[in-house]
Amino acid sequence: MYRRLVSSSPVAVLRYAAFTSDAVGGNPAGVVLTADELADDAMLGIAADVGYSETAFLSSFVGGEGVLRYFSPLAEVAFCGHATIATAVAIAERHGAGPMRFQTPAGTVDVVTRREGDEIIAALVSPPASSAPMTEAELDDLRSAFGWAVDDLDPRFPPHVGSAGNRHPLIGLRDRERLARFDYDYDALADVMARREWTTVHVFHRRAEGVFDVRNAFPPGGVREDPATGAAAAAFGAYLRDRGSLPQGSEVVLHQGVDMGVPCRLVISAVPDSTAISVAGAAHTIGPDRTRR
């Protein structure tokens, strides 16, 4: 429990795992539903104490609309998909499922929640999402940090940098075994990502038509890997959409966190008449003993 800077009322920090149908898998996020009186340094301090890759802070929430901000233990983040899903599910559990809208540093994010049996599914509409070919210099930096040979890359998926509020390199690997190893020079990659202003590195392998195994390196968040990354999933969705691999009315399933022992499932689809991508998944409450992986 944390104290507001102005009010003497305690501020509750909720803990959820997003993009999972149980409390074992998923990506942990902190959620504060009453952040109206918290200053920036207080939110950063809470996020650092919680210790997850991101904690979401909701303020001015009236009539299904509010302001949502995200902090990692190190800094504010413009947009975080899994923390948005966690926040939406937390609201729906308390006030009922339905549409909601958040103003975030990356722009307006709409979310629709619905109940399916005993769980709540949240589908967010990302900020405008796009991708562009990666430069040779950018790719050389990544290959050096990861130790990839040219033959490690999947020639069916040219390297791109995608964006949906944050920038994410998108790299396809030819072999699932190479993805499973996922070894890289942490300090070297952290330096590259800081210079390039990248948030995660989204590495993927095509398992089957419409199904991918993915992993996300996350040195800017202070961890080697993120278990589930909604913002990167949206950027990847834009990449697939622009390549004709995510047509209107179709869905692509991303399996993330499997190699970390915290399986996550993210479902992405193109939003009609928009450049946004929908990212959907469930979320469940977890105890304070659950640490980030």
TrEMBL record:
Belongs to the PhzF family. It comes from the Bacteria. This is PhzF family phenazine biosynthesis isomerase. PANTHER family: BIOSYNTHESIS PROTEIN, PUTATIVE-RELATED, PHENAZINE BIOSYNTHESIS PROTEIN. Keywords: Isomerase. The keyword Isomerase applies. GO terms for molecular function: isomerase activity. Gene3D superfamilies: Diaminopimelate Epimerase, Chain A, domain 1.
